[in-house]
Structure formats: structure tokens, C-alpha cells
Amino acid sequence: MTPITEVEGRRLALSNLEKVLYPATGFTKGEVLHYYASVADVLLPHLRDRPLSFLRYPDGPDGQVFFAKNVPPGTPDWVTTAEVPRSEGPARMVLVQDLATLVWAANLVTEFHTPQWVIQDPGQADRLVFDLDPGAPATVVECSEVALWLRERLAADGIEAYVKTSGAKGLHLLAAVRGASSGRVTEYAKELAVEAEGALAGLVVSRMTRSLRAGKVFVDWSQNAARKTTATPYTLRAREEPTVSAPVTWEEVAEVTEFRGPGRLVLGAGDVVGRVHEYGDLLAPLLDVDRAAPVPVPAP
Q: Domain DNA ligase D polymerase: where (predicted)?
């Protein structure tokens, strides 16, 4: 019998709660739902008003994994949706605006992916992102070196960067920005990625060609494009273990470069719940519109 629960006055049918989704640790679907409920206060502000792309893995990361952007079949009528402009034609997508919608979406076994803009102003960037992806034998240690360089470079332009784990192999840098289209932010991010490739010779690659990435960190600037999405802060990832794309401090990043080990840059669901209780949301400044920085205008 499918359990029925009530969340904020909404009745939800939660299925297969004992199903093991992460065999390496025995982490179940019920634990997935508990995790999302536990971090809802810090997760929801990063989801709110951003059209959601679902990366679903209903049978765990070893089963079928697929992206879904359109409103899924069977979506309750109380879930907020919005029409989103796309080059191939408008799509109707889900907005996770409240706890009930978060639990409903989590019950589908979902990684949450969101764009760098909000529905009120599609294509007008309010965030800048770099995805630092190491090519073996490079690791998160090399990603940390690149992250620290990018932090200083962004600071030179008056942009304050924050960092989170990708929940996979690398790191994500995020910054609050204003006054620029997604296209301009993409151009700016690419300019900095190319600059990093020149400054950190042999360590960084800015081009997407996979054959160039061995032993280097790919600075992926392309996720700033209006059509692209990035793993939302605090989302679980479809990996062997229930790792999370979670914020970390710059001190923790610096420690990784000093001691040449992953340190606290690989975080599981249990780690993140404890960190939220200790630190709150380390990415809260991204939500403060008064702290958003203008993106430099291109040189004439």
C-alpha cells in the first residue's frame, strides 16, 4: 500500500520508500526524501522561480538515468508551472516554490538542475557559474587550484565568488551578477576561462574537446547560456554514493591545495545535513540582490 502523507496541506502518495537507490551504501528512497526535507530551508530559495530540469534515476544511478524538462505526466494541479521560451518553441516547466512541491519532485527520484536566471526575466542572468571538471589523473585538488585563481580574477572585476562541490569529481564556482544577458555572461565567462588557460599553463583547458582534458581541469563556461542548467545547490547526485552538490568554504578549498587531498570536498547527504545545522546556507549571499555585481562590458 502506497503511504499517503500531508505536506503543507497537500496530500502526497510516496512510493517504494524501502527501495535501495544507492547500493554502495544501502541508501533508500525514504532516506532521499528525508534528506530533501531536512535541507528544504536552504534548498528552496535556490530553486524558487527557476524552471526545473529533472534528471531522474528512479532505479538508482545504475539504472536508467534521463533528463526531463517538460511538466511530467501526472503532475498535481497545485504544482506551479510556467511557460518558458525556447528556440525550438515554448515549453511548460515546473517551478519548485514550496515544500510540498519539493517532496513531490523528490519522490520522482530527481537531481535538481536550474538555469542562471529566474522566470520573471528569462535570459537575463542573475548568476554566473563555472563548472570545473578534472580529466584524470587530475582530481579535485587541481580543481581547487583553478578555483582559487578564478576567485581572485573575478574579485579584480568586483565579483565575489562562492564555491560548492559538484557532487561528482569537481567544483562549481557561483557569483551573483546583474545587468547582463545570459549571452554576455557566457562571453565573459569564456574570456576568463581562456585567460585561465594562459595563466595556468598545463593545468587548464577552456575548449570542450574531450581529448584535450587528460590531466587538466576543463573550465566549463558554457553553462551560463540561457538554455543550459547546472546542478542546484544541495541536490543529491546520481552517483555510486549519495553525494551532494554542496557549498564549502574557501578555507576548505585552500586546505585541499595545501595538503593535496580531497579533504571535505566530497560530501554525502549526512555530512550536508550536519553542515547546514552548523553553518546555515553558505551560499545565502547569492540570494541578496544588493550584492549582485555588474558584469564588465566588453572592450571596444
A: 28-258
